[in-house]
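User: I'm curious whether this sequence folds into something compact or stays loose and floppy. Could you predict its structure so I can see for myself?
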Amino acid sequence: MERQKLRIMLRFSIILFSVLILAVACKRETIEIETIVCDDACAPFNNDGECDDGGEESISNLCKIGTDCSDCGERIIITKEKIKRRNLPDSLR
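Assistant: Here's the prediction. I'll summarize afterward.
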């Protein structure tokens, strides 16, 4: 009877360990993506000699970052995206 209990506990432990390994393998990862943004969509504030996109060295934040390129220059926007591990089947993600 003790051996049978021991076998059941061992099987349960193996199943639990397998589930934990699978959970770690399915964990989503985050990557950072750098995008260079530079356009003059910030009318009427673009090309007026003052940087108005709220970024470094700007005088205001009247525009979205990267939309006053003629005055501010290129801006680098860093975004974080979650990705799934590609080596697992969709049913396990």
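Summary: The longest strand covers residues 29-37. The radius of gyration is 27 Å.
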